[in-house]
## 1
Amino acid sequence: MRILISNASDSPLYEQIKEQIKDAILKEELKEGDALPSIRAFANDLKVSVLTIRRVYEELEQEGFVTSQVGIGTFVSTSNLDLLRDSKRRLVEQKMLDMIQTAKSLNISKDELNSMMDILYEED
């Protein structure tokens, strides 16, 4: 799992880390039962405070994405995967609504919009 954090981002460090872990779970880069690094090791790898990683793990556990076992470690739990997928879909739907409203205001037809979407989706 590769985590990229940016001091220039508007999101706090813990939020950036947490969202990337959730994305890795959604993309199945992290699977049910996979162990996350220890708080100390993860903090050292990312060059952040152990308090930052502790907060990430605590919030992920509260949201149901990981489980912690004292003295053993923190492990991925996919019990909240449907909720995560749904929240990601809502985000995309909102962006699509914005796009549709913009297209309508510019008199772009649904067919034109679909064609643009097809072209952009295939570019990768």
## 2
Amino acid sequence: MLVIVTENVPPRLRGRLAVWLLEIRAGVYVGNPSKRLREFIWAQVTEGVEADGNAVMAWSTNTESGYDFLTVGKNRRIPVDFDGLRLVSFLPPDAPKKAP
């Protein structure tokens, strides 16, 4: 099983993803591609995400947690490795800007 979630990506990338995967909600794609196709799709995502966009891809695999994931683009959630277990850390929110 493969899941890709996108935010603020161009329509052309969303269209490309819809060729290989089923879009079950806006920006949420699922499917069961081979490893080779998964790697090809991720290459398309990393090339197609623009400055304000971000994406995450998670898939089933034979690990302790049963899945693995990759991210691209700016987001408060960042992956961290904790003794071989992939977890997610949260960056602090942007401080509100003060009026001059």
## 3
Amino acid sequence: MAPTPAPTVGRIVHYQSYGTPNGEHRSKPRAAVVTEVAASAAYLADAGDGHPFVSLCVLNPEGMFFNRDVPYAETPTPGRWSWPPRA
């Protein structure tokens, strides 16, 4: 199995939205563009998984929003980024 690639500025990743507390809107994957990769070694240590925190431009049907210092998750997890699944 190939190693997981490192995120770089301009790459497309998934950001998992939070959804609403009462379930009116479910958590969904959203396309996001990496706008910055954390350069600090402290962020790598905090992530605990070898993946750096990233800053994202998240693309939603309602518009875009920007999110800084987003941690990685191997599987879709609200508030985290992950690699899109392979088709």
